[in-house]
Amino acid sequence: MGERNVKESTYGVWIWRLIRLPVFIYIGLIITLVIFENQIVYQPDVETGDNAEDSSVSGRHRYINSGQHKIHLMVNERPNPRCYALYFHGNGGNISHRRLLLDRIASELNVTVVGVSYSGYGFSDGKPNERQLQQDAEAALSHILQYYEIEKTDVMLFGESLGGAIATRLASDHQLSLIALDSTFTSLSDVAQHHYPWLPVKYLMSNQFPVKRYAQTYFGAVVQTHGTDDQVVPFQLGHQIALQFQNQDNHQFLVRQGGRHNEVPPDSYFQALDVAIKKLFEKKEWNAVTSHSDGIFDSQPELFSCPFKQRRRQITLAKAWKHSDYYLPSKFRSCGNFRGSTNICAATNTGHDTFFLRKFTAPFE
Predict the structure, then answer these.
(1) Tell me, what DSSP letter sits at residue 118?
(2) What is the rounded CA–CA span in Å between residue 167 and residue 86?
(3) Is the C-alpha dihedral spanning 276, 277, 278, 284 positive or negative?
(4) What predicted TM-score, i.e. pTM, was given to this entire model?
(5) What are the boundaries of each domain within the chain?
(6) Which tens digits make up the pLDDT trace of 107-120?
(7) CATH fold of 42-280, please?
(8) Upstream peptide bond of 363 is cis (omega within 30 degrees of 0)
């Protein structure tokens, strides 16, 4: 018995000697990934020196508060935009690297687009992490709603790779009308598990970005594209997240055969977005500005002026002439009272910042 125990003990020592180095290396890799997770996930290009030129509040470059620090926005305005868009870039570079893409989005789709440079990226202060990036997104949305005096129904989102996770959560939280996604995943931990299948990274990561969860609670429209040869975010993850969105009737998944991760979206992507924007944002009109829908029109329309502001310009409400239908676009529906009369409830946009209007009288008491 004693001799057998000695042999078993000897075998155990040799086995431990053989496996201890791989075990220590494995544990070391896990510890390294946990400690340096943020450095691996977030790969910003930080701009040094002076801030971006033209940093006035109304310029192409703006700085807004996000928590206790400021982040950089790159703005491309259109004179009469069909809608307003926020653009969330991927985990590398910064928003300045997407300048040409933002220009194309603005000009080709006729939208005012605001690109967000995350905390710690480009000219933005702070440090990136999942919670902070979502705070950056909320700050950017709040900014454009206040600055342009618009509503959430006038806003769409663009999300590129990691930015798609941020856009999907923001859209789900606020039920925005449209998301445009490029190379987005089910969760960041799924992407990490794909690249490190022999490590339990899925269960150890602090930056999870669970896009699948937010997609399941979003009911708006989605235009999504993904390349079949994406070397960073596997195509199957993009396809899986496409199936999670609730409104499949208004979901388009554009497959780029042979497409890679870092490439400009195809023309079909912009064409699909053009159709979606036309459907969701153009001629978005309301038939009343109050909760009352059973009032009556005066027999004689009147001329009214109202201090509505669109891109900081006055809008004139003009006399109605032979129009059978009168609607007030959502951005102008809170017009209040005029000349001590009851509420103004209806108008129609002529396309030249002029609105034909009639006065709504009883019953509002």
Answers:
(1) P
(2) 9
(3) positive
(4) 0.74
(5) 10-40, 42-280, 285-359
(6) 999 999 999 999 99
(7) Rossmann fold (3.40.50)
(8) yes
